[in-house]
Amino acid sequence: MTPPPFTFLESPRWEDYALLDSGDGLKLERFGRYVFVRPEAQAMWKRALPESKWTNTDAVFVPTGEESGGHWDFKRKVEERWEMRYTLTPVPSPTGRGELRFWAMTTPGRHLGVFPEVAAHWDWFSNLIHHEVHEGHKEVNVLNLFGYTGLATLAAASAGAKVTHVDASKKAVGWARENQALSNLTERPIRWIVDDALKFVQREARRGVKYDGIILDPPKFGRGPKGEVWEVYKSLPNLLEACRACLSDHPLFVVVTVYAVRASAIHAAQALDEMMKGFGGKVESGELVTREQSAGRLLSQAVFARWEK
Domains along the chain? Predict the structure, then answer.
């Protein structure tokens, strides 16, 4: 294949999140009113802000040596959970609202319930959905796999899609449903499914269920609700093949985001290009990046590939 366009995608429109500084294997971030320090192996430069800015924080995540394990060292009291917001690219929505509201909280796995860099995808597919629904007067069915706390699901639903949200974690799906209520999107048609992603898609294919858009945000490693093992390098090809069987005759978009692996964007793009053969359209790939407020450096967070008709 001809290499697709390579893009660095930023999400510059956040008000409730900021990458304040990074360096020496760490990143200094603001989530709402709280400031945290978390590990970041790719921050292989020196910090730009003085030490006083790094010590005046609310909590520091201390890793244990396991890939994602560790604990939070709280310097000040942090609420069990707090509200954050993101406003989608301004387009009219069927609800009259383009604002996502969601709960953030500290977790044992260093995450806080939101991956801010993915907002670039939310804006992208929300606009595609909105145009298809309101200009093309078509129904759009979207499948969100590894849906976590549901922010991509809510972005798609806010733009007018019917969404099926799948995650192996019952706790994550419960969190996502709470975010739906907080965003005043309870009237939107969303199916919430606790299941193994591959098994669910294979069943959907056998049932003849079709989707116009698919969002894939797989982890490097994970387990399904019945102990199913997910390893991204081994499992993703089978999942993409199963997803193709669930695509409608005229799909709108597919997006794949890959975290925490030694993968190139071209690898993700080639896998997606192979999946979408015969549909036309175009593939682009690149990295999701966040720009520091301190020195303006770009911190790469994930690689992605996405297709649109």
Answer: 6-10+82-308 (3.40.50.150)
